Amino acid sequence: MIQLDLNHAFLKEDVKAYQDQVRAIDEALQNGTCKGNDFIGWLNWANNYDKEEFSRIKEVAAKVRENTEVFVVCGIGGSYLGARAAIEMMNGLYGDNKPEIIYMGNTFSSTYISQVMNHIKDKEVTVNVISKSGTTTETALAFRILKQFMEEKYGEDAKNRIIATTDKARGTLKALADKEGYETFVIPDDIGGRFSVITPVGLLPIAVAGIDIDALMKGLHEGMGEYGDADLEKNPAYRYAVARRILQNQGYDVELLVNYEPQMQMVAEWWKQLFGESEGKDGKGILPDSVCFSTDLHSLGQFVQEGKKVLFETNLYVETPMIDLTFPNDEANEDGMNYLAGKSVDWANKMAAKGTLQAHEETGGVPNILLTMPGMTSYDFGNMCMFFFKAIAMTTLMNDSNPFNQPGVEVYKKNMFKLLGKE
Ligand code: PA5
Q1: Domain containing 316: what range?
Q2: Active site located where (predicted)?
């Protein structure tokens, strides 16, 4: 369970003053009368997910792990970020990752696409193309290149190495997958892209990466209870949601998600999409940004400490690291570092976090929200998903906006299609 500490947040209003509003919104969310109510399938997904499909995900993943050196996830936005966030958080950045998981369909960069194709050309490859609409241009462009490559490399067998995750009935990708005979998995109608990491969109790549998806679903399921109460005192996700609204009332328009683990950086990217796309509409919302400390204390740290007071920090602390390390002794001590000899490196990381909180809070006057997760396991990931899903749904509905649509994303597409000559 994620622990929340608001003692460093400088809130000028009492969180409890929002109890009635929170209760009313929670009721609307639970009984499906809130804004965007056709996209709340994630709420009870941990109970309602298709168990047969879940078993098939595990079977397909086991087969892929046997015959594949590189697994290419081809998708963008909600059809990409969650899987990458989960895999990097749980396996680390330089783990013994077999198969290697790489990402395409998330950019038009010709250099990136060419280098990925060059990287995979002599390896055993499986492709997972993921798109709910089936028409997202970045993904479709990359998939055509991958499909041709797979057909040249594997001939008839290509169809056994391409897996499509898409809508159950509609769209170009579904039609193509049926025609070619690809294995397919379904993106549920009532779960939007940025909430879809808990569906086959995330679960297949995560299982291919060797991660226990049963534990992920268990964490999600427990999260339904832990973050399910309308009572603010019993629900840290809703308290966090209210604290964000109060801080915005106090003039803070930027939220910096702070982590101290480089393997959490894609979690921050996933969170930015979840929060930014859900809340940033109707001329409202808090701009979500992120930093990885202590690395970024040597870049953005200066701004946080002494720059314009536009932001608050939300620290996502991890209690137990994936691996700890003891700092070695050195007889000569020429670098003067023996004061750390025998100490845990994770302890040093936590002391850096403590010192930073003090500096930003006491001297910098920056409000800090503290979130602590127990570890970076599959269970923790599933649990964290429910925490952030509930928090962003509540905080956006408090703004009287629809948390589950993204009308603004379409504007660039129209212009781009015109420029690309699409009919
Ligand atoms: O949150 C969202 O809905 C978006 O980020 C989509 O996931 C993204 O645009 C990809 O869409 P699709 O899965 O239709 O290719």
Answers
A1: 3-33+217-399
A2: 277 (proton donor), 413
